[in-house]
Structures are given as structure tokens and as C-alpha cells.
């Protein structure tokens, strides 16, 4: 459903992504692996339209999104939980969630129950300012904000970075439940191989902005890990 084809993108003069192609299908969790700085976040931003493609295309359900603005991509059904969460610190938890509705394909004025049900801690802190939440709580808020728009493709950029193990477990459960529903495609950037192996179906490895390996998660063996992932 989401297809990236021969994508080239970068910042200013520098080319970061070269000839990147990948696919993510409904009900699948596809993991994007690679050492620091290889271009994983850059690829997420390019899919979301925050960075323009210089070559290649991003298509979704057969529609070419390559030239579309980020808002339109969101309204087409692509949800994004960015690295660093990007919560609005001065807004309340509930206001942060309401902002998620802006990306909804159908006009709704309340946050859908299913987005909140996955993170039961959030309703207990609706009045608190986003900036006062812990890192793990902000991560849950960012995740719920993306789910509020009922995305069909979910881009998750290092959702477990810097958060406590109990919330990592919660996030694993949420990703598994999304996968079990079979309606949403997930593209996940994650450094922890244990986490990746516990939720993923398929993986791509990036090195210097290019896909150098891909396969089912079962085929992710020590040799690939040593060659492309060990620091
Ligand atoms: N806004 C920017 N302007 C210029 N260069 C950038 C910008 N953001 C990232 N880069 C560069 O692009 C390259 C890829 O960065 P990117 O953040 O996509 O990597 P990554 O694989 O997500 O790394 P990490 O695991 O550290 O998040 C790096 O060399 C980085 O310095």
C-alpha cells in the first residue's frame, strides 16, 4: 500500500538518500534498521513530505504523493510519530490530542475512543501541560495523537528511545495490537534488535542512505547484524 521507489533526497547540497525503494503492506510491521546517521529519519521525513524528493516517488494506495504537502499526506492516511515526539509543551494533553484530529480524513471533533483506549494513562492527565509529562508519557501522547487521525500507515521513529522499560512494554503491546487488527501498515525505526524482533515482519537495512539488505525478520542473522548494525 505504501511504496517508495528509487527515492533520492537530502539537505542543501548534500544527498542523503540514494535510490531507496521499499514497500509496506497493510497488517505488516516493517522495520528500518541501520547505524546512526545512515538516513532513517530522513527517509521518514521524505515519506511524510517534510523533505522533498529530488528523484523517485512515494505512492500510497496507488496515488502518487511525491509532490503533495505533508498535510495532504496526513489526510490521505499517513500518521507520523516523529523522533523526539514533538509534543506542544504549552498545550494541555487533551489539546495535543485534538491537534491529531486535524489530520483525520473525516471531520470529527472528539478524539476516537480506540486511540485513547490503548493508552489508559492519558485521560488521567488531560489537563496537564504536555511539557510537564515524562518522556515516556510524551511518547504515549505522541502515539495516541497519531492514532487519533485513524491512520492506515503509521510511521514510528524510535518510539522507545530514552523511555523506561515498562512503557517500552506498553508500546510493544500497542504495536502488536495494531498488527493484530490487520488494518494498518507500520514502518518502524528502532535501534533495539530485541524490540524489532518481537514486533517486526520484514526489515530493510540502510547504509550511507541506500538499502543494502532486506528480508523477513526471521532471516536477520548474526552476519547481517555484525556487518551493518553493530557499532
Ligand atoms: N536538517 C538537516 N540538515 C542537514 N543535514 C542533516 C539534517 N538532518 C540530518 N542531517 C544529516 O543527514 C544524515 C542522516 O541523518 P538521519 O537523521 O536521517 O539519520 P538516522 O539514520 O535517522 O540517524 P539516528 O539513528 O542518529 O537518528 C546525517 O549525516 C545527518 O547529519
TrEMBL record:
Alphabetical keyword list: Amino-acid transport, ATP-binding, Nucleotide-binding, Transport
SUPFAM superfamilies (UniProt xref): P-loop containing nucleoside triphosphate hydrolases
Family in the record: Belongs to the ABC transporter superfamily.
Molecular function in Gene Ontology: ATP binding; ATP hydrolysis activity; branched-chain amino acid transmembrane transporter activity
PANTHER family the record matches: HIGH-AFFINITY BRANCHED-CHAIN AMINO ACID TRANSPORT ATP-BINDING PROTEIN, HIGH-AFFINITY BRANCHED-CHAIN AMINO ACID TRANSPORT ATP-BINDING PROTEIN LIVF
Keyword set includes Transport: yes
Name the record gives this protein: Urea transport system ATP-binding protein
A Pfam family matched in the record: ABC_tran
Chain ranges of the ABC transporter domain: 2-231
Entries under NCBIfam families matching the protein: urea_trans_UrtE
Example of a GO biological process term: L-amino acid transport
The species this protein was found in: Paenibacillus endophyticus
Amino acid at each position: 500500500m505504501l511504496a517508495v521507489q528509487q527515492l533520492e533526497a537530502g539537505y542543501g547540497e548534500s544527498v542523503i538518500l540514494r535510490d531507496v525503494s521499499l514497500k509496506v503492506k497493510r497488517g505488516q510491521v516493517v522495520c528500518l534498521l541501520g547505524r546512526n546517521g545512515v538516513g532513517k529519519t530522513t527517509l521518514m521525513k521524505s515519506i511524510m513530505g517534510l523533505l522533498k524528493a529530488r528523484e523517485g516517488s512515494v505512492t500510497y494506495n496507488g496515488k502518487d504523493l511525491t509532490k503533495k504537502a505533508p498535510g495532504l499526506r496526513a489526510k490521505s492516511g499517513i500518521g507520523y510519530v516523529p523522533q523526539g515526539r514533538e509534543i506542544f509543551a504549552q498545550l494541555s494533553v487533551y489539546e495535543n490530542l485534538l491537534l491529531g484530529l486535524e489530520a483525520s480524513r473525516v471531520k470529527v471533533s472528539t478524539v476516537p475512543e480506540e486511540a485513547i483506549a490503548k493508552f489508559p494513562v492519558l485521560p488521567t492527565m488531560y489537563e496537564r501541560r504536555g511539557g510537564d509529562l515524562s518522556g515516556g508519557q510524551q511518547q504515549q501522547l505522541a502515539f495516541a495523537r497519531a492514532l487519533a487521525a485513524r491512520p492506515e500507515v503509521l510511521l514510528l521513529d524510535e518510539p522507545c528511545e530514552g523511555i523506561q522499560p515498562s512503557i517500552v512494554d506498553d508500546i510493544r503491546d500497542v504495536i502488536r495490537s495494531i498488527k493484530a487488527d490487520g488494518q494498518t501498515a507500520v514502518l518502524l525505526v528502532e535501534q533495539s534488535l530485541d524490540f524489532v524482533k518481537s514486533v517486526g515482519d520484514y526489515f530493510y537495512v540502510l547504509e550511507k542512505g541506500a538499502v543494502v539488505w532486506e528480508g523477513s525478520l526471521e532471516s536477520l542473522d548474526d552476519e547481517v547484524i555484525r556487518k551493518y548494525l553493530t557499532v
